[in-house]
Write a structure and sequence with these properties.
Length: 93
Amino acid sequence: MKIIELDLTGCEYAYDIHKRIQVAFEFPEWYGKNWDAFWDLLWSECDADKVIIKGEKSLPKELDKAIGIMHEILERNKQDRADYSPFDYEIIS
């Protein structure tokens, strides 16, 4: 089982979240650092079975929308892969 740990502790901007995503998911340098690019690479390049997200509670309120979008994308990936390649995510803190 491949697990990716995404630690968002200390992120101040949406760009910071995308930089952490790029590193944790080992996305290429050309990753666009936006939600469309995250979906595209999550769908096509990510072979993880599970993503563990840490540090959400430490983020400023201004990032609530960005975190909500990230959750929607992860949930969509979970639903789309349900029949052939199980995927899940867990929010630790």
